[in-house]
Amino acid sequence: MSQLAPGSETIVRQRTQPTYEEGDEERFSHYVPKAKLTEALVMGTPVVALCGKVWVPTRNPDRFPVCPTCKEIWEQMRPGEDKGPDR
Length: 87
Known about the structure:
mainly alpha
């Protein structure tokens, strides 16, 4: 068995998969009209996301995954795409 030098230690890095549960909406970035987001960031006023969440944005949304509800609504709103049944 090998021994570590005095004062040294082994560092173990672990990665975990995030799980999302009720109340985790704070961990998502949400879709908001760009003009409203800019105003909210400057003025500190609340915004309403596509999913209905109301909050005052204060953090970098790039650090969080996109809200699945906002994404689903956004994809249904996109013009020019035929969402009809396959034939």
